[in-house]
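Build the 3D complex.
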Amino acid sequence: MPFPTRLQHCSTCGAAVQYRVPADDTRERAVCPACSAIHYQNPLNVVGTLPVWEADGRVLLCRRAIEPRHGLWTLPAGFMELGETCAEGAARETAEEAGADIEMGPLYALIDVVRVGQVHLFYRARLRSTTFDPGPESLEARLFSEDEVPWDEIAFRTTRETLQRYFEDRRAGRPFDFFSLALQ
Amino acid sequence: MPFPTRLQHCSTCGAAVQYRVPADDTRERAVCPACSAIHYQNPLNVVGTLPVWEADGRVLLCRRAIEPRHGLWTLPAGFMELGETCAEGAARETAEEAGADIEMGPLYALIDVVRVGQVHLFYRARLRSTTFDPGPESLEARLFSEDEVPWDEIAFRTTRETLQRYFEDRRAGRPFDFFSLALQ
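Done.
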C-alpha cells in the first residue's frame, strides 16, 4: 500500500482540484476552485490480532492469497472500517482471514508506519480451537512456534516486530504489556 | 464532526460515482463507472495529550476558538496528519493549540468514537512550564485541578472520559496505566 496518491478531482462536484494551503491551515490540501470544498488525506488504521494457542504458546499466521506480498505470512489484519471499534475490526479480520475462534484480549501493539501513512494496532487474542477456516484472502492458516516461524517469508514489518516482541516477552516470562513503536 | 459524507464524484477522473459492493468485497464502496477506481472511507485518528503539571497534578485544557464546540474546553488534540507518528501528531497539536512546553509520555487512552468514525488517542505529557501561548484555535489555555474543571463546559466526551480516568487514578494512587474505551 503506497503513500496515499494525490487527489485529482473534487469528490463533491467533480471539478479539478488545486493543491494549496487553505486559510487558517498550515498544510497543502486539495481545494476545489468550483465549490470550495477542502479534501483532507490522513493516516489509516490497520487492525489485527496476535492469536495465541495458550497450551504451547504457538501463534496463528495466515499466508496471503492477495497482493501485496502474495504467498507471504502475516498476522490476521486489515483496514479498519467505519461503524466498528478497533477491537471489532481486529476480530472481524481474524474471522475473515483465518476463520479462527478467538477470545479478544487487550491491545498489545501500536506501530506507526509513517512512510505509508498507516497505524497498525494488534490485539492479543486467545484461540479457543486449533481448527481454522481461512477465507479467500488466505492460502492457509496455521500455528507456529518460535522455531517454526518462517522469518524470511513474513509479509510486513509490523507482523515481524509484533512476533519478535511476543516471543521475547514469552521467553523472559514477562507479562505481555502493551508496546508502541514507530517505523519510518 | 459528522460521520463521513458519501462521495459524489471520483477523485481520480471526476465522473459521478456509484455505491455498490465491488467484487471480492463485502461492503458498499464508491466505485467509478468511468475509470473503475474504488474509493474507500475509513475511520480517522484524533491525537492529543493529557498535559500534567506534576507539582500539583493540575491538567492543561484549551478553550476552543473554533467550531465545533466554540467556547468549550478540551484537551489539546486534532486530526493526525500524513508524515507523522501518533505521538508526533499529539505533540504538534499541543504546541499549536496551547503553546505548551512538554515532555511526551506513553499512550494513556485509546477511545473509539464509532458514531463519527474516529479513534481518539491521548498521550500523557509532563509540562515543563506553566507559561502557555495559545494559538489561533484556542481562546485561552490554563491549568485546572479536579475541583476547578468546568465539567459542564467540556467540548468532547473523549476529553471528559480521559480527565475522569486521570483524576480517579490520581486519587486512588494508581499508576496511570493505558486504558481503552468504546463510545457509540
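The interface with chain B takes residues 3-4, 7-17, 24, 27, 30, 39-45, 79-87, 106-107, 110, 112, 114, 117, 119, 136, 178, 180, 182 of chain A (CB under 8 Å).
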